[in-house]
Design brief:
Length: about 400
Amino acid sequence: MKTSFLAHSRTLFTISTLSTLCRRNGAANWLLLVLLPILAACGEPATPEDAAAAPVAEQVTTHEWKMITSWPKNLPALGTAPEEFAQRVARMSNGRLQIRVYGANELVGGLEVFDAVSQGVAEMGHSGAYYWQGKIAATPFFSSIPFGLTGSEQDAWLSFGGGNELWRELYEPFGLIPVRGGNTGTQMFGWFKREINSLEDLQGLKMRIPSLGGEVFRRIGGTPVTMQASDVFNALQTGLLDAAEFVSPYNDLAIGYHEVADYYYYPGWHEPGSTVEAIINQAAFDSLTPDLQEILLAATEAMNQSLHEELIARNNEALRVLVEEHGVQLRRLPDEVLIELKRISEQVIEELAASDPAAARIYESWREFRADVMNYREIAEEAFIEARRLPAD
Ligand code: CA
């Protein structure tokens, strides 16, 4: 923390400026005679006590924060969003809050973000809540649930369905404030070295797939692995992994998975709209003035929106490059595979809710919200999307 002094400025008409104005406007000199003593009185303290109390300088505190992330430094979208966030905070705060962003492994490993921010190693983190499921069972609700909510639905649940309040309650014992810092939208199922035509084809595969999606994968006979993104490419290349999911074409192209796996499967049933979390150390947050706190929270909201929109805007062109320029084989999972994955997903979610009181409360809120939002979605977006596909003539 640094302390500096900003000179307190005050605006006064100078005598010459006032004289000029009077002459230009044809005002009588008596106006000058009346105003001069008043201005002189305003400019000088009346007594020594007034002089002592007068605010000659305003103390400004500058904060220098660290923000650690789970992503390779400057990875398009996931990695660049926190950099833009830090720049926005610096501009909004006129330099009073400076945030330096670290990629995975620069300060701590990508899967150590939660503990490091909780312990004050860094003031902020940018990661995924489901990575901490081993510590807090209910965290997947604040990333994504298999066959759950899309990106905009997840945002709506957090903002208006009680999600944000439940999330804050869940992280409070760890001295952390969680807020949303991006959404990936619907992801891809991921990268495979061979075609998947049935559930049997998934059995025996070792796949990087975290959280509840990983548990579903385990129950159909696969071996799920949770691994930070920067390690996945080598693991696929060396054969440590047979398959891997990460995000969607824009991020996946940047990492280069197409160089080590030929088949790219969709839909991302396991992550239909993952929130990317921004976590703030509570004590660090409390040390900020109320205006800096508001700036920080407003900037995370801006990051949340822009990351989601960036991926929506860039994914299709990245997919075109993958397919047309790199010869990637794009495949949809067969319906019979999806039906079984969905059946098992529902079981996994129910079991999670039954195993943990906090997860049970959150599940109740989330499940009710999903039922509501799905009902109107069918009437609005889904019906419209079907209509948009109709022939024009
Ligand atoms: Ca993913």
